[in-house]
Amino acid sequence: MPKAQEIREQSAEELEAGLIDLSNELFQLKNQFKLEKKLENPHRLRELRRDKARILTVLSEKKRSSGK
Fold first, then answer.
1. How far lies 31's CA from each of 12, 24, 26, 34, 44, in Å?
2. 35-43: long-range pairs with CB below 8 Å, 24+
3. Alpha-carbon span 3 to 31, nearest angstrom
């Protein structure tokens, strides 16, 4: 789980690529859970959601700061 400071050091392009990867992994885990009703690492869903939120927050901060 990357810390917010580590995320802020990345460029916007890297963050967007990471966001796509996280979204894909989250989608796959949700589908696996719906099909099997069981996950090997159920806490991974929460981690992915929080990481995705961190990245979205930093992206919005970067967009706001570049607009000023």
1. 28, 11, 9, 5, 14
2. none
3. 27
Helix axes 12-36, 43-67, angle to 10 degrees: 150
Which pair of tokens denotes residue 36?
């099997």
Task: Quick: pLDDT tens for 10-45.
Answer: 999 999 999 999 999 999 999 999 999 888 999 999
Token pair recorded at residue 27: 């989608």
**What is the set of domains in the chain, with CATH numbers?**
4-67 (1.10.287.310)
pTM: 0.86
